[in-house]
Amino acid sequence: MEVCDMVDVTDIIQKTEDTLESLWNQFELFCPKCLHFKMGQCIASLLQHEYLLNTDCEVINSVFLLCQIAQPQELNPFNKAIFNYANRKPVDSKITAAIYLINLLPFSQSTLSSTTTQILQNVKLIGAPLKNFPYSPKPDCSLPIILDDPENDSKEEKHYKEVLSQLFDSDIPDSVFLPPLVRPPPPLYSDSDDLVWLCPNDNEYSFAWEPHIFTDKDKPEDTKKLFILAQRQALESSQYDLLKQELYDKEDCLQSLPLSPSTLPKLVDKNPSLAVDILLLLAQTQQFADYLTVLLNMDLSLHSMEVVNKITANLELPPQFIHFYIRNCITNCTEIADKNTQHRFVRLVCVFLTALIRNRLVNVQDILIEIQAFCIDHSRIREATGLFRLLKSLDSKELS
Amino acid sequence: MTGEETINTVEVAKTQFDEGRYSGCLTTLTTMNSTSALNIKQIQLNMILCSYLKKGSEHDLEWLLDNLYTIEGKMNKESEEEEIDEVEKAVLLYNIALVHFQTKNFDKAVVILEKLFKLIEPLEEGLVYKICFLLVECYLSTYQTEGAAIVVYYLDKQMATKTADGDMHKARMHQYKTRLFAQQKCLKACKREIKNVLSVSGTTASSLFLKSEFEYLRNNFKKSCKLLNSAPKSCPSKEHIPTLYYNNFGCMHFKMKKYNLGVLYLSQALEANTKAVKAAPQGCNSTMYSINHHYQILYNYGIVLLHAGQPKAAFNCLSQAATVYSRNPRLWLRIAECAIGVVKQSQENEQIQNCKSSTVKAIVGSGIYRKTILNTNFQNHPKKCSAGLLSEEPTPSLTYAALCLNNALELLPPSNSGGPVNVSALPAAPLKDVSKLRASILCNLAYVWLGLGDPLQALKPAQELFSLTAAPVNLRLLGSVYAAEALILLNRSNEATNCLAPEFVGAIINSANCQTKTNEDDASSTGSSPIPGKVPATQETLVQDVHNIIILNSVALYCMKRDLNRAKRILAQHLSTLNDGEIPAQATMLLVYIELRQGNTEAALSILKQQQINLQLPALTT
Questions:
Q1: Chain A 214-233, CB below 8 Å of chain B: which residues?
Q2: What is the mean predicted confidence (pLDDT) over A316-335?
Q3: What local confidence, expressed as pLDDT, does residue B570 receive?
Q4: Fewest C-beta in 10 Å: which of A155, B175, B240, B480?
Q5: Per-residue pLDDT for B530 more than 50?
Q6: Of B481, B422, B400, residue with least CA distance to B447
Q7: CB contact under 8 A, B91 and A211
Q8: What are A111-162's pLDDT values in tens digits?
Q9: What is the predicted pLDDT for the residue at B234?
Q10: Contact A158, B365 (CB under 8 A)
């Protein structure tokens, strides 16, 4: 706030013979609208620190200016200051004057055309109350911050106006003295785990090589799957080829398959060639005997005979095996109830035996009797008589 | 190429890969023709690895990750059954997890590795170890001690049955166990494992740093320093030892409450880290990632700066750290503390500039017109801020502090869930007990809202705070101070009186007398050696300070309620307990107020003059 502004306003306040209207005009001349509120705060401060106003005229003018700065009165921010001043005790002439003026609100033209002195002359009653003033007080514990502190023995004297101007710097009009509350700031949070300790990490974490480069190697499940499939149905030739390739290429393929003697019959039944392949592979193993046993005891079928035939052709089998098998076949034939089936199987057995004999895979001598009997039993079947004649011819050759 | 030739080629390639001759391996793999007998994708995987790993490679980890994901996508398309897939893809998935690990995306790595760990049985032995080791490392890096313990247990069983590669793996296991026990705070077991580490691996940088950490955890700072100093300056894994060294020294000085030294060391650590990262071999940037500890050091640096009274610098550091560690509630509290610190500092600077005395602003004029003007710096004017306007950048303001504090609260488990908790607080150790943290957050929150001039918002956290029985006593008392102020501002002064009433305050102080033992332990140390140099502010002094303020504030409150007699009585009683030189400014102002209220201007002035006999008071000049 410029010094001259405040001083100018003080001048205005101290005038006695100017009309209120002209006082207002002078005020507007010296104080731009944007500073009206600030100026008002200063004037309110004058009222608050009552000893800064010495005469009734000054009071009237101050109150007047405060009212004029912001109309309508209900919205005047200085109502509190005006009200508090008007309610001061003990009531003196200044306060009575103030009340008188306030009760003239809203100011009529005649009031505005009166001079301060004229208005003062009309002030009559001491103790007259405020009427209809649009403000009611809230309990307030504030006190002024400016304390009267006269130096009685000082030689130096500053001018009153200069003191005033020094007083009204930026925030004094705004400030009141309230009972002091302290708001202590919170202490910093403390925690022993707050910080990060760093250790060098010399562990190596390296990328992994992908070993499953071969489809076959990588898919034992496929061969497994195929093998399992082979027990349920006849494989297609490509599937059979794949499996066969696997079996022959890799040593451990056979071991990885869920193969056991008990699975053999199904295999023989559905995929006799595969069974042959597997059996040939198994020939050198210890379990071969088990498989043979199972094979021997299988029910008579074209496939099982095929398998036995092929096995016998490719392997050195103990003669007991073949003999046992032949006997088995013969017995099975006899036991077949249905005539047509029996005939069929008899024919099969005969063909089988003929092949065995012709290929010299069997030593007929040991089981000659059984076979001859068999042939005689089924002499009505062409193959049987053919077999019989074959046996006879061999026999005679032997004998001769 | 026949089957047999193919097999040979693959063997050659594998050998090259194992020996680190990646360019050669790549060439070898390229010569393999594609036949139906070969898995193209698996070959591609190996080729991509080689392309990335070979010397002079221009590919970075991002490129590698993209390509690995592409292969995974292709594999997913072709497979029919899900179960078989995971085992088939095991190597690929492991490699992907490794890339995540190297880029410090530990969470992503853990997700993959946990899946693999579940399917670990049918996998080949080398891969099993790779997966397990990496998983333990990821768990330890994120303080997931339970997961780490499970895998370590599994590995122990595995290694008991097999003997191949035993020694190499054993060394690693000892190291993992050391770190695990340190994190679990099982210090005895940790000590035992450290002995094993030293005897198996010798005095490498890694083992000595581990031992140093162990001593640090027990607050044996001298021993810890010695160990760090004796450690070799380089390490086979290219970690930059000086960076770690400075960082750890910074940590130690922080614990010793020597904050300025801590700041010095940590700034050196940051510098060293930046230099080391720049000097790392370009191209194969996994080294860059693995040795780069920028954000961890920045986090440490910020916290120490805050304690050293440099909140602005601290704010900048911690805000950056929060971009990485956004789920750490402790960090958000710290950032708020920084913002509050900045605001406080600027307010204090203003006050110091404006007036030298805390009670009298100025004396104006002279002679009969001389006036004494009182200081109003107890009014705690709310900082005028553009409420509602939050800029993109974090700024050290009270509004931003409120935001941070709410973030922190969100990240805590709800307060009514009793029992032990485990709240992740990366990069540092997780929180086991959140009551202290919650108390601090609430305290700061109430303070901030009061500072922003919103007593209604301030009231709730303040009330929650003084009711929090597990909170430290001094913070609960602060809660009642803030609650009282808020209630006064809301014109509910009777409730405010209750907050400051001696019975209420006494109850809080007494309820925690059993707590004081543990709190003191907290404030000082859990170890054997005392902290040299400074005397730590114990809980008792902290509580006493707040208690004094509570008494004075209650005097003020009675003044506000026009109960001057009571105010005088309490004030006189309190002042009689203090020594003469210790009368706080607030007490002086209260005395002045009471005199003025009673109309005794002269008495008030004499009190002021008494207090300021030696001070030169500035006159206001125009």
A1: 214-216, 218, 221
A2: 85
A3: 92
A4: A155
A5: no
A6: B481
A7: yes
A8: 888 888 888 888 876 667 777 787 766 667 777 777 777 776 655 555 666 6
A9: 82
A10: yes
* pLDDT higher than 80, residue B388: no
Sort out which chain A residues have CB atoms less than 8 A from B37's CB and list them: 214-216
Q: Which of A274-278, A293-297, A362-366 has the lowest mean pLDDT?
A: A362-366
Q: Taking all residues of chain A, what is their mean pLDDT, rounded to a whole number? A: 81
Question: pLDDT by residue (tens digit) across B610-620?
Answer: 776 634 444 43
What is the spatial distance between Cα A382 and Cα A377, in angstroms, rounded to a whole number? 12
Quickly tell me which residue has 């002045």 as its tokens.
B592
Q: Which helix (H) or strand (E) holds A28?
A: helix A20-30
Q: What is the pLDDT of residue A171?
A: 57
With an 8 Å Cβ cutoff, is A4 touching chain B? no
Residue B355 has what pLDDT? 62
Q: Contact at 8 Å (CB) between A117 and B571?
A: no
Question: Which pLDDT tens digit goes with each residue over A76-102?
Answer: 778 888 888 888 777 788 888 888 888
The residues near B182 (Cβ < 8 Å, ≥ 6 apart) are B190, B210, B213, B214, B217
In this prediction, residue A56 carries a pLDDT of 86
List the single residue in B with minimal CA-CA distance to A2.
Answer: B622
Sheet holding B371-374, edge to edge: A146-148, B371-374, B360-364
Partners of A115 in beta bridges = A19
CB burial of residue B201 (10 Å; 0-12, 13-18, 19+): middle
- Contact status of A158 with chain B (Cβ, < 8 Å): yes
Number of Cβ within a 10 Å radius of residue B595: 19
Tell me the pLDDT band of B424, cut-offs 50, 70 and 90: confident
Cα(B607)–Cα(B150) distance, integer angstroms: 72
d(Cα B45, Cα A207) in Å, to the nearest integer? 11
b/e code A193-215 from CB counts within 10 Å (16+ = b)? ebbbbbbbbbeebebbbbbbbbe
Closest chain A C-alpha to B300 CA, distance in angstroms: 6
Q: Measured between alpha carbons, how far is B426 from B431 in angstroms, rounded to an integer?
A: 10
Give the closest-approach CA distance of A200 to chain B in angstroms: 5
Q: Which residues of B269-291 are buried (b: 16+ CB within 10 A; e: fewer)?
A: bbebbeebbeebeeebbbbbebb
Please report the DSSP string for A131-153 in residue order: -S-S--PPP---B-SEEE---TT
User: How far is A69 from A66, CA to CA, in rounded Å?
Assistant: 5
Give the span between the Cα atoms of A267 and A259, in whole angstroms: 10
pLDDT of residue A322: 84
Provide CB contacts within 8 A for A39, sequence distance 6+.
Answer: A5, A9, A27, A31, A69
Number of CB atoms found within 10 A of residue B478's CB: 31
Taking Cα atoms as reference points, which of A43, A130, A57 lies closest to residue A94? A57
Q: For tokens 């089957």, what's the residue? A: B3
| B-chain residues near A50 (CB < 8 A) | none
d(CA A188, CA B338): 10
% helix / strand / coil in chain A, to the nearest 5?
60, 0, 40
Pick A64 or B8 by higher pLDDT.
A64
DSSP one-letter code for A49: S
Q: Give B401's contacts (C-beta < 8 A, 6+ positions apart).
A: B335, B336, B339, B340, B343, B444, B448
User: What's the pTM?
Assistant: 0.70
Minimal Cα distance from B39: which residue of A? A213
Span between the terminal Cα atoms of chain A, in Å: 155
User: Is the dihedral angle over the CA atoms A372, A376, A378, A381 positive or is it negative?
Assistant: positive
Q: Does A209 touch chain B (CB under 8 A)?
A: yes
Residue B374 confidence class, pLDDT cut points 50, 70, 90: confident
DSSP bridge partners of A19: A115
Q: Determine the residue type at B348.
A: E
Lowest mean pLDDT among A114-123, A284-293, B376-385, B553-562: B376-385
Asked if residue A106 has a cis previous peptide bond (ω within 30° of 0), the answer is: yes
